[in-house]
Amino acid sequence: MTRTSVALNERLRPLLGDTLPAWVEPRWFADGDALLEIAPIVEIGWFDTFDFHHTLEAYTKAENACWLNTMAAGVEGFPLDLMRERGVIFTNGAKLNARPIAEYVLMGMLSVAKGYREVVRAQDRREWLEKPPGRGQIEGAQGLVLGAGGIGSRVAELLRALGAKVTEARRTPAPGVLGEHEWRGKLGEFDWIVVAVPATSATDKMLGAAEFAAMKPGASIINIARGAVIDQDALLAALDAGSVGAAFLDVTDPEPLPADHPLWVHPGVQISMHLSGQSQDSLYRLAAGRFLENLSRWHDGVPLDSVVDLEKGY
Predict the structure, then answer these.
(1) Predicted structure pTM score
(2) What is the pLDDT at residue 172?
(3) Percent of the chain residues topping a pLDDT of 90
(4) Residue 62 confidence (pLDDT) above 90
(5) Percent of the chain, pLDDT > 70?
(6) Smallest Cα–Cα separation from 92: which of 64, 124, 65, 70?
(7) What is the domain-level CATH number for residue 153?
């Protein structure tokens, strides 16, 4: 039987080693250098490492690969044009992080609404607060979720469960969902703006001075997309002007954020260092399960799950 050569990180062996189909010839790699040795010969590659430089170089070297896979949901940093030129199928980790990221959004919103950062600081000072630093509520609030994909839809689901009134917006039209341009005319209606769009040329700085000025005074922004989606200079100006009340940023531009950047010290900003997607124990297990399902689909000649549109970039 002809076997298909598949590149896999050694860390996945406990999850995949005993369950790979017989037609797969696994090529395990334990570090970036080993990955670069096998990348040119494999037909299928799951190249994720903890060194993104090696991962990207492997994509360049993978001249014989027909299908490449990543756990990442955002793929703006990958060589999409090269994969499109080579006719490669590219699958990503869309929706694998939806639940923990949605939980992180709730944490950020509650932290802002209840002033919880000030509670933690008071504990550090061993100071007993007599009054709560925040009295905001999720129940009854109006929320807009920009990017109603896997993550955004889960965010909307959790917010509705807490009694919030949620409007979703996305690029692809759908019943009851605002289109990609409709939401701007309604920004003044919302107490919360949750940003969960993919990072593409179309979403670069999609929230800037005009959008902040149109928002409901004192409204808050939660960004779990990419830092480049927000014009950070305009955000700082809007926070100072009061047109934006607070910002909870899981992502910034650049990352890591320089120590002297004004976002770090602004009283209206909380930063969570792009930790939301990592705040789970199940990512590798979920990713391995999807990969096994896709291997079966590949072998049977049916469409794979979570295929990236290399033209759109998500």
Answers:
(1) 0.90
(2) 83
(3) 90
(4) yes
(5) 99
(6) 70
(7) 3.40.50.720
Q: Both 10 and 29 in a single domain?
A: yes
Higher pLDDT, 73 or 232: 232
The tally of domains found in the chain comes to 2
Residues 85 and 60 in one domain: yes
Its domain, for residue 272, covers 98-278
From CA 116, how far away is CA 247, in angstroms rounded? 14
| Domain shared by 68 and 124, yes or no | no
Residue entry with tokens 């969902």: 177
Residue 216, token pair as written in the block:
């409901």
The answer to whether residue 313 sits within a structural domain is: no
Task: Classify residue 175: in a domain, yes or no.
Answer: yes
Report the C-alpha gap between 184 and 181 in whole angstroms: 6
Nearest CA-CA partner of 162 in 187, 181, 148, 143: 143
Q: How confident is the model at residue 176 (pLDDT cuts 50, 70, 90)?
A: confident
Considering the domain architecture, whether residues 119 and 247 belong to the same structural domain is answered as: yes
Asked if 104 and 234 sit in the same domain, the reply is yes
- The verdict on residue 286 lying in a domain is yes
Predicted confidence at residue 1, as pLDDT, reads 67
Assess if residue 184 is contained within a domain. Answer: yes
Give the model's pLDDT for residue 51. Answer: 78
Q: Which helix (H) or strand (E) holds 26?
A: strand 24-29
pLDDT in the model for residue 280: 84
Query: 190 CB contacts (<8 Å, ≥6 apart)?
Result: 142, 143, 144, 167, 215, 216, 219
Q: CA dist 85 to 44, 48, 66, Å?
A: 17, 21, 12
Q: What's the token pair of residue 145?
A: 């979720």
Does residue 67 sit in the same domain as residue 152?
A: no
Q: Are residues 107 and 155 in the same domain?
A: yes
Predicted pLDDT at 181 = 85
For the sheet with 219-223, list strands across it. 165-169, 142-146, 192-195, 219-223, 244-249, 269-271
Across 57-66, average pLDDT = 97
